[in-house]
Every structure is written in C-alpha cells, then in structure tokens.
Amino acid sequence: MQIRKFSKHLGDSNNLEKVLHDTYKVLRGNISYGGNTQNGLKPDNIDGSFGSTTDTGLADTLFSVTHNLNRIPIGFHVINQDKAGSFYGTPTSLTDWTTTTIYLKCNVAHVAATFFIF
Questions:
Q1: How many CB atoms lie under 10 A from the CB of residue 92?
Q2: pLDDT score of 4 more than 70
C-alpha cells in the first residue's frame, strides 16, 4: 500500500485525515480488495483488478475476462456469482493469459460472475 504524503499546500481539507487513515491501515496490517464506488468496483491496497462476465456461455467452454493489469496475472478469486459452479483455467488457457485478458471455463452454463484478478 502506498501512503499519501501530507502537504499543507493541498486544497483538500481532509488530507491529514487520509494520511493518518492510510498509516493506520498499514500499521495494523489491514489488506483490502477495495469496494463499490459510484463508477463500479475499485481495488484498494492489493495489486489486482476486478473483472466480470455476464454469461459464461455453455458449460466447460472457454470465455474471456478483461482485467487491464498491464501484466500477465498469476491467479484469480471469484468474488461473486449468481449460481453454483466452479471456475477454472486449463493449462492451455493459463499460458494464453495476456496483460489485459484471462481465459477461464465454468463447469455450469450461463453463470454471471465477478473476479478479482491478481
């Protein structure tokens, strides 16, 4: 996590409070994925990105998830899904992951899901 630097010259009246909050989080070892904002999900202090799919298609069929990490990820966590099912990557799909996209499969058809990709 990167701590904000305090500056009395910044116009933000909550600057000191933000710096102290960041320092507190670091000292207590708090790790956060992030949360919802008005514009969608936003990561906090874990190096990763949110991605989602509204429909995985047929069972065991490769589908893509955009992440825009600007590096090839090493894994993913399922954050939310609308029905039971397991997500996985085949050895081939894992090697095809790119700096903007991962490829997964789900053993159940037509699942909507959100992922944290890291």
A1: 9
A2: no
